[in-house]
Amino acid sequence: MWKYSFLLPFLLIGNLAFSQEFLTVPNLFSQQQDSAIMSMIYSGKYNLLDAVKQSSSQKDWIVYSDRNENYTTQNGSKGVKLDYMQPLLVLEADANKLLVADYDTEESLGWVSISNLLVSSYSITTSHTLKEGEKGKAAIPKKAVILTGELKRNSDGEFDIDKHYYSSPNEVEQFKKGKPKVFQPLFVLKESNGFFLLGVSDFLDGPASQNVSKVLGWIPSRNVEMWNTRLALEPANTEQAKKDYQGVNIGGYSTLKELEDFLTRNIYLENKIVADIKIGPIRNSQMRKPVIKHIDENIKKVISIAREQHDKNDIYRSMIEETNDLIKKTNIIFIVDATASMSPYFKSVANSLQKVIDRNQKVLDSELKFSLIIYRDYADGEKAYEVFPLTSDVQLLKSKINKIKCMSKDKDLPEAQFNGIYKGINSLDLNPKESNVAVLIGDCGNHIGDDEEFNIESISSLFYQKGINLISFQVKSASDQSYLSFNSDIKNIMFQTAQKKVRKKNSNLDIYFSKKNNTIELNMKSDAKDDIVNMFSLLKYARFNSSTPKELEELINNSLSDYITTLKNNVNIINKWIYTGATSEKPPEGLILKLMEQHDLSREQVIDMLKTTELTTDAYVAIKYYGKNSASQSPVVLLTETEKKKLVKSLNVLTETSFTSTAQKKSFQDNLIYVCQSIIGQNTSEELIKNLTLNQIWNIIMGVDFGKKKLRSMKLKEIATMKQGNFKKFYDSFLNEAESFCSQSYYHSDNMKSRRFKVADSYLYWIPLEDLPACNSY
Q: Which of 84, 107, 550, 735 is such that its CA lies 20 to 30 A from the CA of 384?
């Protein structure tokens, strides 16, 4: 889907501004909270006024309407209807409701019950236990996975899934918003009436308008499997494992008895295997097998991709993440006529830069870079065009813009426009898969007849090859043909660039013009309701009057804001299709075209990518098969970026040492108490923590068992009485392991070696259990 607009220079649409004071994020919602506490808040059993009084944040409190058909109240009457995941600012709080304002316009919308809002940007956590004698549980992000294994193929050979996401916690047809497609960890953002609101991240840390793509929707709790540990299994990648299991069939069974029969009798039952185990490395983004039940030291109950699935699903998902990353790398190239008549307008370009950055941070938070190309005429020799390379240093570029002298030795009206555009863009190192947009500003067009090397065909071919969008402003006009050619040339360049996109991929999108008043739009027709915009172009042309510099500045800001909003919408649509599918059966043509271009795929491959669903099932698996000494699978721990940072901070505290051995014991004990209190609450008594076992404490801090079996049942207070030799051996080992873990980034440019992966702008990590201090017991 393409959209182009031709706007009049004097048409400025002012936004109604509301000067409001908004509440800042309460301390209670500036971190993850126990699910029991959040249930009290949403049910109205907790007075919000108490939370609002305690806020040390400088950030505006952003909340979200958690459902469709969500009405505010204004003066006791029904007010505005809010949409699902609509971002809102908080003006005022009452005991169990909030006065909210529109996120974009800042206009007050009315009061909303706390039960119908998502008030925290963090996922909820599991409840921890500290009772003496119990194992103890960490307050870790509450996670779920969705089983899609009990499926039947329809008449088209595709799988029917009877599980849906909803835009409200209500199983009615009108609220359906997609089906589970991807096997991945899902974070519980809210619980309500037997439903979970699930997201792909434990923290909605992006721009508010983009966070909607991180939230998949509501799903009945009966349709999910809870994964309230951090442990998962991945294929072993050791040389011994490769040797031991080479040519051997191993896998997971649907029942414990079937697996036990296999292990005791060594009889491989091909038709009973529901999950494969393949020795060797796997991609960083490939889902591991979450451990949902610990049977014994060798047998675990896990959730796995069903046997008939292939790793193409993971490759496709990686492609989608790459597409989103590239979309958000945005390069804005100003191409400006620098002849004498343009002198008043250069300051407008310089003034626009910071406003574009501010808008981007609110809407998309992409990686912005700016460049400047200026063109004059052939008579100016080396000064016929100049290029200022791409940079993220806005102040540097503003300084260069303000020093430019608008002049030319040629006194006629036409310019060497195509010469400057062609040579200037070719001198920039542009990645055609990133978001490249040229902002062309001038008055007169190219020299008529200057078509041997630089013409509409060569410019449109260059724009197609470099993936360039075009926004163009003509600041003034007159009766001379050169003014008219400025507009007609740009119009033809945009149209021919669009044609090349369509014809190269045999797309059936229909290009057509529409006109209303003084606005002409070039559209790429698509039958889909939601489709991405493959190319954004806008021409603002002048009639027989000139734009003022202030008008130009406003139009630049508004147009680039529209462009950034379009990129945001593209990202949201792509995420929707890969993670939840869509309500329509056929992928939209614009999206197909985009992915064909980005990854050099055929139409059939893209459609397969967008319609593929990962089938999952639960299974019983073994760590070791056939009596082998080596493990077929290795335990890993899933950490979010937030969790990893917290754990590193905690370990840095724990590794603070004293010089004497006796003081070292006391220091380690005190540090453990401090870390536990920071996790479960500063009001927790030291005496209670001292009576916890090391196994309980490790579960609180890391969410996994203490690895040294002989020390698991030792209480923290007993560390002081440990023999010095035993303590030194344990502590030295712990210190080395902690320092090693804290020093690793777990990132590698090779996806088969990296342990960091990205889902919808959030980083997660598959950390080997053996890397966590004093945790390895497998």
A: 550
- Both 405 and 472 in a single domain? yes
How far is the C-alpha of 180 from the C-alpha of 609, rounded, in Å?
Answer: 14
Q: Which residues contact 229 (CB under 8 A, 6 or more apart)?
A: 140, 290, 291, 292, 703, 704
* C-alpha–C-alpha distance, residues 426 and 257, integer Å: 67
Of the residues 120, 155, 190, the one at which a domain ends: 120
Q: For residue 179, how many other CB atoms are within 10 A of its CB?
A: 20
Tell me: do 115 and 155 sit in the same domain.
Answer: no
Mean pLDDT by groups of 10 residues along the chain of 778 residues: 40 42 94 92 92 92 97 94 96 96 94 98 80 54 81 46 88 90 92 96 86 92 89 96 92 94 83 90 92 93 77 68 81 94 89 84 80 94 94 91 90 91 96 94 86 87 95 89 91 93 88 69 73 87 81 88 86 81 73 88 87 86 93 94 89 73 80 78 77 86 81 90 88 91 94 90 92 77
Distance CA 134, CA 700 (A): 12
- Kindly tell me the burial class for residue 510, based on how many C-beta atoms sit within 10 Å of its own C-beta (0-12, 13-18, 19 or more): exposed
The domain of 218 spans 143-227
> Contact at 8 Å (CB) between 6 and 520?
yes
* Domain count of the fold of the chain: 5
Q: Are residues 361 and 269 in the same domain?
A: no
Instruction: Evaluate whether 234 touches 636 at the Cβ level (below 8 Å).
Output: yes
Quick one: tokens of 141? 């992000």
pLDDT of residue 211: 86
Task: Specify burial of residue 740 (Cβ count, 10 A radius: 0-12, 13-18, 19+).
Answer: exposed
Residue 340 CB coordination number (10 Å): 12
Helix (H) or strand (E) holding 651: helix 641-654
Q: Taking the model in full, what pTM does it have?
A: 0.80
DSSP label at 432? T
The whole-angstrom distance between residue 597's C-alpha and the CA centroid of its chain comes to 21
Task: Say if residues 460 and 497 touch (Cβ distance below 8 Å).
Answer: yes
- The helix (H) or strand (E) run that includes residue 402 is helix 394-403
The total of other beta-carbon atoms located within 10 Å of residue 496's CB is 17
Find out whether 384 and 422 touch, Cβ atoms under 8 Å.
no
Residue 65 lies in a domain: yes
Question: Are residues 506 and 394 both part of a single domain?
Answer: yes
- pLDDT at res. 67: 97
For position 581, what pLDDT does the model report?
63
- Residue 741, both tokens: 């873990």
Q: Which residues contact 446 (CB under 8 A, 6 or more apart)?
A: 414, 415, 416, 417, 418, 454, 485, 489
Considering only CA atoms, which of 568, 609, 764 is closest in space to residue 182?
A: 609
Whole-number pLDDT of residue 5: 41
Q: Does one domain contain both 261 and 147?
A: no
The answer to whether residues 437 and 470 touch, using CB atoms and an 8 Å cutoff, is: yes
Q: Where are the alpha helices (DSSP H) in 404-455?
A: 417-426
Q: What is the pLDDT of residue 437?
A: 95
Sign of the alpha-carbon torsion through 182, 184, 189, 195: positive
Residues 6+ apart with CB under 8 A from 142: 35, 123, 124, 125, 126, 187, 188, 226, 228
DSSP state, residue 19: -
Structure tokens at 461: 């071919």
Pure H helices in 505-618: 549-579, 589-599, 603-611
Task: Clarify whether residues 350 and 475 are in a common domain.
Answer: yes
Residue 423 sits in the same domain as residue 349:
yes
Q: Let me know if residue 605 belongs to a domain.
A: no
Which residues contact residue 777 at a Cβ distance below 8 angstroms, ignoring those fewer than 6 apart? 705, 707, 708, 709
pLDDT, mean over the chain: 86
Sheet strands (E) in 715-761: 756-759
- How high is the pLDDT of residue 508? 85
Q: Does residue 437 contact residue 468 with C-beta atoms inside 8 Å?
A: yes
Instruction: State the Cα–Cα distance between residues 624 and 238, nearest whole angstrom.
Output: 13
Q: Could you tell me which residues come within 8 angstroms of residue 735 by beta carbon, excluding any fewer than 6 positions away?
A: 655, 657
